[in-house]
Amino acid sequence: MIRKCLFPAAGYGTRFLPATKAVPKEMLPVLNKPLLQYGVEEALAANISNMAIVTGRGKRSIEDHFDNAFELETQLKNTPKEHYLKEITDVINNATFTYVRQKQMLGLGDAILSGEPLIGNESFAVILADDLCINEDTNVLSQMLKLYDKYQCSIVAVEEIPINESYKYGVINGKLIKNSNDQYLVNEMVEKPKPENSPGNLGIIGRYILTPDIFQILKQMQVNNKGELQITDALMQQAKIGKVIAYKFKGQRFDCGDIKGYVQATNYFAKSKGII
Prior knowledge:
Spore Coat Polysaccharide Biosynthesis Protein SpsA, Chain A; alpha/beta; two-stranded antiparallel sheet; single chain; 10 helices
């Protein structure tokens, strides 16, 4: 049973400067809700209530957002505007939040390793909030939890990508599992390969389920030539012994770490709510 979800939220969000100079990219709103709240709600819908958040310098607004605001609540109580706070108060009442700071920006692998004190010796989910995923029936994390129950190993969510954009993703190659059309036993993973060196066209997106041995693997790794500890490299060590499944998820994903994807997500939700 997966009880905890880790949210790496320490990055600088440089593609959104100057907006992210003082506002964490995870707190950028799609309509009236921050990206990170969408991720937390996805975890809650998957019956995970323990949210472990890896933050960094200048990220205090994340903690403030997932905390009670007594003055504001008092001001809005018994007024026509009281319902505006309902969504976030429901999240606060149903989830537990713990925090740790990443000491240095050394890549996603280091951010995940920084979360070890919050996770302990158990398997856990990871959500990257700037990948906003939509599915009207069963959300992406819930789909992955069913696979974890079956395989009891690390799971990564993948989608088909244009081969000329392979340099943006960790890319996998694997063998399609018998009697499945969306599950692959991973045998190769490459972080941000050039198109001519890409092992395929299945790119990893920001949804993972990781087994606890990933922490020990990360501790034994060296940073790459960019000074980063990559989770893809750690997962490749698990893949060598047949312990990583790639899952082509059902749903739609918006890359909200990119301005174009962020605008697409905003338009999607605006249309779905009848605003435009």
